[in-house]
Amino acid sequence: MKESLRPGGRSARVQAAVHAAVRDLLRDRARSELTIPAIATRAGVTPSTLYRRWGSLQDLLADVAVERMRPEGDPDDTGSVRGDLEEWLEQYIEEMTSVPGRAMTRDVLGCTGAAPRQCAAFLRRQIEVIAARGAARGEPALDVDAVVDLVVAPVMYRLLFDTAPVDPAWWRGLLARVVPPAG
């Protein structure tokens, strides 16, 4: 996104209308059929508003994807860092391997703006919450970077570039390198 938007007022209304228009149009037609003029018409704004605010169709799609990828809350608390990470990873992988998840990932990666960094920040924040909970329970410190580099990065690589499945046994093996199973 080119400019920082105010949290309220016309800017927020335009953003909400445009995001809704993109989501509606994606339900009705193929992604390849989306155009700035079609989105603008559906949102009730001019195409120049979209170009001024987002710069390109790809950056607009990335902004919509980032909003949809924003976590709705903290990861569930299962009582252990290992349990929290397993549950969080299972949900994350399920979302990212779904057809909409893959499309949102492509939208984010194809943009020229800050969307990839925003998604990385969302992900890191989720892991930091799990780490802080574990520390409060007296569990060994969780290395957030290790989780990102040794677990999430290979999962995303496989999701984006490989045909091998992202199955539970595989990602649990990755997780065991960072947080050994209890017992």
Automatic annotation (TrEMBL):
SUPFAM superfamilies the UniProt entry points to: Homeodomain-like, Tetracyclin repressor-like, C-terminal domain
GO MF term list: DNA-binding transcription factor activity; transcription cis-regulatory region binding
Gene3D superfamilies: Homeodomain-like (1.10.10.60), Tetracycline Repressor, domain 2 (1.10.357.10)
Membrane as UniProt keyword: no
Keyword flag Ligase: no
Residues in HTH tetR-type domain copies: 12-72
Keywords: DNA-binding, Transcription, Transcription regulation
Residue ranges flagged as DNA-binding region: 35-54
Source domain of life: Bacteria
Name under which the protein is recorded: TetR family transcriptional regulator
Native organism taxonomy: Bacteria, Pseudomonadati, Pseudomonadota, Alphaproteobacteria, Hyphomicrobiales
